[in-house]
Amino acid sequence: MLDMEMARKAYQERIDSESYSDRNYTEEEKRLQREHRRELEEYRKNFLSVKNKQSK
């Protein structure tokens, strides 16, 4: 679990470093960001469920 949290934190830091607070994102860029966040969250949930099944 700790590894997953560290990976998530590192990923979020990378996203934040690539973001510009004064940049005006297009609707397409915003949509892609939301989609990518959703995919990442789904992957995380699947990863955790598989990991939990393996530990039993």
Automatic annotation (TrEMBL):
Q: Could you tell me which residues belong to the region Disordered? A: 1-38
Identify the domain of life. Answer: Bacteria
Protein name, per record = Uncharacterized protein
Organism taxonomic ancestry: Bacteria, Bacillati, Bacillota, Bacilli, Lactobacillales
